Amino acid sequence: MKEFTIQDKMFLELKEKSIFEKAQNYSIKYLENVFDRNVYPTEEALNNLLVFDETFPENSIEAEKVIELLNEFGNPATVSTLGGRYFGFVCGSALPVAIAAKNLGTYWDQCPTMHSLSPIAAKLESVVEKWLIELFNLPLGTSAGFVSGTTVANLCGLAAARYRILQRKGWDINQKGLYSAPKIRIVTGQAHSSIIKALQLLGFGQENIEWAEVDNQGRIIPESLPELDESTIIILQAGNVNSGSFDPFENICKKAQKATSWVHIDGAFGLWADVVDKLRYLTKGCNMANSWAVDGHKTLNTPYDCGIVLCKDNEALTTAMQTSGAYLNKSNDRDGMYYTPEMSRRARIIELWATMKYLGREGINEMIGIMCDRAKQFAEEISSLNGFFVENNVVFNQVIVSCENDTTTQNVLKNIQELRECWLGGSIWKGKKVIRVSICSWATTEKDIIGSVNSFKEALKIEKTNNSN
Ligand SMILES: *Cc1c(COP(=O)(O)O)cnc(C)c1O
Predict the structure, then answer these.
(1) β-pairing, 262-266 with 291-295?
(2) Ligand 1: distance of its center to the CA of 241 in Å?
(3) What is the C-alpha to C-alpha distance for residues 412 and 114, in angstroms, rounded to an integer?
(4) Least confidently predicted of 55-69, 211-225, 296-310, 331-345
(5) Do residues 321 and 161 lie in contact, with contact meaning Cβ atoms separated by under 8 Å?
(6) Ligand 1 pocket, 218 CB below 6 A?
(7) 247 lines ligand 1 (CB under 6 A)
(8) Atom 14, ligand 1: residue with shortest CA distance
(9) pLDDT at 87 over 80
(10) Where does 100-357 sit in CATH, by number?
(11) CATH architecture of 362-468
(12) What is the pLDDT of residues 4-51, one digit of tens each?
C-alpha cells in the first residue's frame, strides 16, 4: 500500500483549510467587481477557455491548483447575470443573503430525500410550504415540491393532473401506463417551451394540444376557449416570456371549475406579482387553479437551481411522484422525495428559506415593484429615441423593442451584445424580430437603465455608420 494515500491527502487539505480560505477570498473579490464590469466575457477570456481542453488527467494534483485554475480562467469567462445590466432571457440575480446562505449550505451538503437524511432541510421545506400557501393565498393543504426550476415544476404539476384525471375515470396511470388510457385533452395559449417539453415527456404529444386564441399581448381570449370538460388540462401563464402579460385567470378558472377541468399555471417569474400591491390585479383568481409552477431563481432572486411546484391535490402529486423500496422508511415528517421526481437532490431550500426570511412580504413587494418601475423607465427612455419602438404594454418586467426593420433590429442587437455594457437576447414577436429586455435583478438601478439605453443608442449609431459606408 502507498504510504501517503489520497485519503491522507484529503484529510490534510481539510485540516490545513487553505483551499477553503483561498476559494472564499476569490469569491469575495469576485463579488466586488461583478456588478460593475463588462456584462459578457471579453474575447480574450473566451479564448482562454481553451486551457480546459485536455485529456483526462492521469494523476491527482494539488487541490490549490484546482481552485486557482477555476479562478484564473473560469472567473473572467462568467456572464454577470448577478449584476444589474443583464437583461437576457428571463433570469435573475441572487440576493447577498442568499449567496451567503447557499455557501453555508454547501458546507453542510444536505440531501432532503427523507426527513431522516436531513431534519433541517425537511423542516425548512415544511416551513416554506406554509409560507407559500399564505403568500399566494392558496387552499390549505396545498403541497410544495422543491425542484431545479419551473421546467421540472411544470412537469410535476402536469403529472399530478394526468394522474387525477385518469384516476377519476378508473384508470391507474402508475399501473396501466398511458397506452389505451382514456384521452386527456390539453388546452393552452402562448405556452412557454418548457410546457411543450413537459407535455412531450408525459406522452401527450404536441399534436394533441388545442391552441386557444390569444390577444395582441399574448393573453388567452376566454371567449375563444374550446368547450372544457372533466378530461381537460388547461395550462395558463402568469408572465408571458416575451410581453410579460398574464392570462385572465379569474374568468378562465371559473369556467374550468364548472367543467371540473384541471388548471395548471406556469408562473415562473410572474406568480410573484401576486405579492406586489400595485401588480396584484394581474394575478387575480390565480389561486383558483389546481397546480402552479414558480421559480425562486428569477424575479425572487435566489441563486439558480430553485423552482417550486405547488399542488392543491396532495394525493395527486405524491402519487404521481411515488417511489417505494424496502429500505425507504416513510416517516410522519416531511419526506421530500414524495413531492419531486428526484430521490437525491441539493437542499436548495436553504437559499429559498433565507431569501424569504430576509425579505418578508414587504421586501418582496418593494423589490419586485422596483423591477417593474425600471422596466417602465426603460420603455419610456427607449421610446423617446428615434429609431426604437416598444412593442408591448409594459405591465410587469418585460419590454419588447424593435427597430425600423428586421435587419436593423438584428444588427443593432449584435452591436449591443458586442459593446458588453448590457446583455439582451432576441425573439420573434408577431412575426417581427425584436430585442427582448427582461428586468429581473434586485441590483438594477436607474443608472443601469440610463447606461443601457445609451448602449442601444450607440449600437444604432454604429449600424447607421456601417450602412452609409
Ligand atoms: C423560465 C421560464 C420557464 C422555465 O423555467 P426554468 O426555471 O428555466 O426551468 C417556464 N416558463 C416560463 C414562463 C419561464 O419564463
Answers:
(1) parallel
(2) 8
(3) 51
(4) 331-345
(5) no
(6) no
(7) no
(8) 268
(9) yes
(10) 3.40.640.10
(11) Alpha-Beta Complex (3.90)
(12) 999 999 999 999 999 999 999 999 999 999 999 999 999 999 999 999
pLDDT at 380: 98
Percent over 70 (pLDDT), the chain: 99
The grid coordinates of residue 215 equal: 390577444
Cell of 347: 437542499
The stretch 352-368 carries a mean pLDDT of 98
Check if the beta carbon of residue 142 is closer than 8 Å to that of residue 310: yes
What pLDDT score does 2 carry? 76
Grid cell 404536441 — which residue? 206
Distance from chain centroid for Cα 272? 12
Ligand 1: residue of 90, 147, 150, 243 to mutate (most ligand atoms within 8 A of CB) is: 150
Q: Give the lowest-confidence range in 2-6, 112-116, 156-160, 246-250.
A: 2-6
C-alpha dihedral over 184, 185, 190, 196, to 10 degrees?
30
Query: What is the DSSP secondary structure assignment for residue 226, as one 8-state letter?
Result: P
For residue 302, give every residue at least 6 positions away whose Cβ sits within 8 Å of its Cβ, in sequence order, or none: 92, 94, 95, 98, 296, 348, 351, 352, 355
CB–CB of 427/436 below 8 Å?
A: yes
Binning pLDDT at 50, 70 and 90, where does residue 329 land?
A: low
- The values of phi and psi at residue 166, to 5°, are -75, -35
Q: 12: Cβ–Cβ under 8 A, 6 or more apart, which residues?
A: none
The answer to whether 82 touches 444, Cβ cutoff 8 Å, is: no
Residues contacting 186, CB < 8 A, separation 6+: 199, 204, 208, 209, 210, 232, 233, 235
Cα distance from N-terminal residue to C-terminal residue, the chain: 73
pLDDT of 88 above 70: yes
3-state helix, strand, coil in the chain (%, to 5): 50, 10, 40
Residue 21 confidence (pLDDT)? 98
Residue of 87, 89, 90 with the most ligand 1 atoms within 8 Å of its CB, for mutation? 90
